[in-house]
């Protein structure tokens, strides 16, 4: 009974709500960044048909140019995958976030004032820094600034905001001129400048040996509860040990050092798991379906009006799925939620492919409601699964050691995957046809589901250090020199 009363008092503790609100404030600008990124991607869906309609020619923006417009943020994010983590490592998370916010504001001004395809390309290229930040700064900040009990919710809400951005752009582009999207982006770009009021990351301060500042920032963000103080103590003890080791390795040859890093079990295992997670997300085809929604739905139903209606419905359903998935992270284990909903989503892809093949061979008549129902079922499943859980899992798997190197390599791979996914999607639908494209995505996503089932560890309600110990294995903890999990 005493334990129950203690738990009840914790839930009603006003100071706990205060620290939650502080962590929410930190996460809100990251969520705003994801929303802006989603609005840029959604703008391409409605902007390209509008420009073609205004010019009364499909050659105003060719299919190849359209694919470059959509994929450019991914490819232009590649160099930032090296630069941004280096800046975050050298100068801190706060400076990096301020640079990102200024970059977003400038790219938005160029986007709003664009009158030529070249200017649009420049705006999209500048968005590469924002795209890169989704796998670097966002992961650093949420895992370092927030408590384990809230981390999963913040991760999933962040991911959901990306598709809110797509839906807002698609809705505005359906009823208004595409330049109005830039006005909404401007509002969120200004809000992003609130990062100047952020504290510095406690983890970064600890890596620089500023332990007093680390303690102050950690307590400001997470309070002085027993769990928070234990987390702070373990963080400082671990970093003191790591900082001592780093001093001894500074004279080491850079090539030898890089080889030692990538061959370390605490490095290559997490990045392997993270690549599988993001691979599942892209192999499901959900990103391609969202960006090229009008073309895909119009090919299925043969109606432009249905394509616009279906696009907005499916965007709404996708967001619903992600918000259903967000509270489920508090109930279900990470593996269970990711694998079960991903499997259901792959099942809908197989069914959709079979259904479209039967229509193609005149075994069934096309019914737009059945098509939209199957796409909606797929969207909800993927929304509850990889769209929220992939980011959550690779964020939680980010190791304590070599975080900047890890995030640089992962971002390079992720940005290349995003760019290639959006660049090749029109080719996949053109070469395989719509039924074959659905079958292709169904098979590739099934392969990734099987690999994740075999290899992905559980990360729910664990600190970063506990997850690292789990990845390495208890027998190898001394080898990588992490601190013990609990006092014995």
Kindly summarize this structure in a few lines.
With 488 residues, this protein is mostly helical.
Task: Give an account of the 3D structure.
The chain has 488 residues and is mainly alpha-helical. The chain is 82% helix and 0% strand. It contains 22 helices and no strands. The chain has helices at 2-11, 14-55, 63-91, 93-113, 117-133, 137-145, 148-175, 180-192, 202-207, 211-222, 226-249, 254-262, 265-283, 286-291, 293-301, 304-328, 334-360, 368-384, 386-396, 403-455, 464-472, 477-480. Helix 10 packs antiparallel against helix 11.
SSE map:
Blueprint: H1 2-11, H2 14-55, H3 63-91, H4 93-113, H5 117-133, H6 137-145, H7 148-175, H8 180-192, H9 202-207, H10 211-222, H11 226-249, H12 254-262, H13 265-283, H14 286-291, H15 293-301, H16 304-328, H17 334-360, H18 368-384, H19 386-396, H20 403-455, H21 464-472, H22 477-480
Helix pairs in contact: 2-5, 2-6, 2-7, 2-8, 3-4, 3-5, 3-20, 4-5, 4-8, 7-16, 7-19, 10-11, 13-19, 13-20, 15-16, 16-18, 17-18, 17-19, 17-20
What are the defining features of this structure?
disordered N terminus, globular, disordered C terminus, 488 residues, single chain
């Amino acid at each position: 009974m005493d334990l129950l009363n203690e738990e009840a008092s914790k839930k009603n503790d006003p100071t706990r709500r205060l620290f939650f609100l502080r962590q929410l404030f930190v996460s809100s600008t990251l969520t705003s960044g994801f929303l802006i990124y989603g609005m840029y991607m959604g703008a391409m869906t409605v902007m390209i048909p509008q420009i073609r309609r205004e010019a009364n020619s499909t050659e105003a923006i060719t299919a190849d140019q359209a694919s470059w417009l959509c994929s450019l943020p991914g490819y232009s994010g590649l160099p930032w995958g090296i630069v941004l983590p280096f800046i975050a490592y050298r100068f801190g998370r706060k400076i990096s976030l301020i640079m990102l916010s200024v970059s977003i504001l400038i790219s938005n001004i160029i986007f709003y004032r664009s009158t030529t395809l070249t200017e649009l390309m420049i705006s999209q290229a500048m968005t590469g820094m924002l795209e890169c930040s989704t796998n670097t700064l966002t992961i650093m900040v949420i895992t370092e600034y927030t408590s384990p009990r809230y981390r999963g919710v913040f991760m999933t809400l962040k991911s959901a905001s990306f598709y809110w951005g797509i839906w807002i752009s698609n809705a505005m582009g359906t009823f208004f001129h595409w330049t109005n999207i830039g006005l909404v982006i401007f509002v969120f770009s200004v809000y992003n400048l609130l990062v100047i009021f952020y504290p510095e990351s406690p983890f970064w301060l600890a890596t620089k040996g500023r332990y007093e500042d680390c303690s102050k920032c950690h307590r400001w963000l997470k309070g002085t509860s027993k769990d928070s103080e234990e987390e702070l103590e373990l963080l400082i003890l671990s970093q003191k040990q790591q900082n001592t080791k780093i001093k001894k390795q500074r004279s080491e040859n850079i090539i030898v050092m890089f080889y030692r890093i990538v061959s370390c079990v605490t490095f290559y295992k997490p990045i392997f798991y993270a690549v599988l997670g993001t691979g599942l997300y892209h192999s499901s085809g959900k990103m391609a379906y969202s960006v090229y929604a009008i073309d895909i739905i119009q090919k299925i139903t043969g109606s432009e009006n249905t394509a616009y209606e279906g696009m907005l419905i499916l965007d709404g359903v996708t967001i619903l799925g992600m918000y259903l998935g967000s509270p489920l992270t508090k109930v279900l284990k990470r593996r269970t939620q990711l694998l079960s909903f991903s499997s259901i989503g792959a099942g809908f892809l197989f069914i959709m492919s079979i259904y479209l093949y039967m229509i193609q061979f005149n075994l069934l008549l096309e019914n737009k409601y059945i098509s939209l129902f199957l796409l909606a079922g797929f969207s909800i499943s993927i929304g509850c699964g990889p769209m929220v859980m992939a980011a959550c899992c690779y964020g939680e798997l980010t190791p304590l050691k070599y975080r900047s190197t890890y995030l640089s390599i992962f971002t390079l791979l992720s940005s290349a995957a995003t760019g290639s996914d959006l660049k090749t999607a029109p080719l996949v639908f053109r070469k395989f046809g719509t039924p074959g494209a659905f079958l292709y995505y169904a098979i590739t996503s099934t392969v990734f589901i099987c690999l994740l089932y075999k290899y992905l560890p559980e990360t729910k309600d664990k600190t970063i250090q506990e997850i690292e110990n789990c990845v390495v294995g208890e027998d190898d903890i001394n080898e990588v020199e992490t601190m013990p999990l609990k006092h014995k």
